Amino acid sequence: EFEILINKIKVELKRIGIDFNIRFKHWENIYAAHLIFPYIEKAYNAVSNYSKKKGIIIKIEINKPSWKVKKQTEVISGFGEFYPCICTDIGALFADKIDALKKTRARHIYDIMFMLSNQYPINKDVLLILGIKDDPLVIIMNKIISLTKFELRKQAENLRLFLFEESESDLIINAHDIIPSLLEKYRKQLN
Predict the structure, then answer these.
(1) Are 184 and 177 in contact (CB under 8 A)?
(2) Which residues are 23's β-sheet partners?
(3) Which end of the chain is more exposed for a tag (fewer CB within 10 A), N or C?
């Protein structure tokens, strides 16, 4: 189904004059596609120091979870546009993101900060399915304190290019200071 959907996107974009190549890669319960747009930067005269020889690459990853997915409707808004979107329950997303901390990636730390600051609930049933029995907030704290300042800087640099506001990568550099504060506020909201 995933590959069929991505190929439908290709057909529709080609219809409006945007062509791209697709590379699929799947492992375990993750389905991934790289949409490679080799000519789009040149077409819009947007070539920069960050441009890659291959062109712009958009990576789409879909996680087919082992639990029953509960859906909720959210509204995506920006630039005066509003779109209703059916999403996975945010508590399940938060639980899955905590599990993802097993891999040290800046995007996971960044997302955890976002979810803590927005007081997302944590779905404890999903945590159990993922094999997490310990306090999830302790898991978050332990992961952050296990990272050196050097590792945080390296992760922040990797994240920088993917942010609309590159300076937000400083949040990762300062995770040792920011995460404890966010966890304390989150705990207060629980009580």
Answers:
(1) no
(2) 34
(3) C
